[in-house]
C-alpha cells in the first residue's frame, strides 16, 4: 500500500510541476529582457522600431516617451450547471462571455539621445500586463544583437 501511495504522490507532484510550467508566459519574459536589452538604444532607432510615442515630456536633460498597448480578451463563462439556487445566487445556468481588458504603459527614459530606463505600468497586473508590454517592445528587441551566451571553446578542466 505504501508503494502505491508513493507512486500516486510522485505522479501528483509531476502533474503539478507540468501544470505550473504550462503557465509560463514567454511574452512576459521577453518584456522583462527588453528592460535591460534596450538600454543604450539610440533615440532614432527607438522611434523607428516602436513608432511615435503616445505622450512625450522633457525634464532637464531627460526625455520621456510613453507608449501604450491594450487588448480585450473574451472567454466563455458558465452561469451554472442548471437548477435554481435561490436569491442571491441566481437562476438557471447558462452560457455567456466574460470580457477583460489587458493593458500596458511603457515609459522610456532617454538621456543624451539614448534609452536609459524602461518602466512598465498599467491597470492590469502580473504576467498578463507584461505579456501585453511585449507588444510595445518586440520590434525593438529584433534590433538588438543576440544576448544568448556563446559556448566556450576552452578545453574542460
Describe how the helices and strands are arranged.
Elements: H1 2-21, H2 26-37, H3 43-50, E1 55-59, E2 62-78, E3 95-111, E4 114-121, H4 126-141
Antiparallel strand pairs: 1-2, 2-3, 3-4
Helix pairs in contact: 2-4, 3-4
Question: What's the short story on this structure?
Answer:
The protein has 157 residues and is of the alpha+beta class. It is 36% helix and 30% strand.
Plain-language structure description:
The protein is α+β, with helices and mostly antiparallel strands. The chain has one domain. 36% of the residues lie in helices and 30% in strands. The protein contains 4 helices and 4 strands. A 4-stranded antiparallel sheet has the order 1-2-3-4. Helix 2 packs across helix 4 and helix 3 packs across helix 4. The protein is elongated and about 55 Å long. It starts with a helix and ends in a 16-residue tail after the last helix. The C terminus is likely disordered.
Amino acid at each position: 500500500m505504501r508503494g502505491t501511495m508513493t507512486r500516486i504522490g510522485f505522479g501528483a507532484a509531476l502533474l503539478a510541476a507540468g501544470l505550473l510550467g504550462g503557465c509560463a508566459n514567454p511574452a512576459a519574459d521577453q518584456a522583462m529582457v527588453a528592460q535591460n536589452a534596450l538600454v543604450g538604444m539610440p533615440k532614432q532607432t527607438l522611434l523607428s522600431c516602436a513608432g511615435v510615442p503616445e505622450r512625450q515630456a522633457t525634464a532637464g536633460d531627460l526625455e520621456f516617451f510613453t507608449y501604450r498597448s491594450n487588448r480585450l480578451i473574451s472567454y466563455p463563462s458558465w452561469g451554472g450547471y442548471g437548477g435554481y439556487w435561490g436569491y442571491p445566487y441566481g437562476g438557471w445556468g447558462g452560457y455567456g462571455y466574460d470580457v477583460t481588458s489587458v493593458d500596458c504603459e511603457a515609459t522610456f527614459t532617454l538621456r543624451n539621445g539614448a534609452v536609459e530606463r524602461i518602466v512598465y505600468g498599467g491597470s492590469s497586473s502580473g504576467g498578463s500586463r507584461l505579456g501585453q508590454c511585449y507588444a510595445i517592445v518586440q520590434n525593438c528587441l529584433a534590433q538588438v544583437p543576440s544576448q544568448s551566451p556563446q559556448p566556450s571553446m576552452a578545453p574542460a578542466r
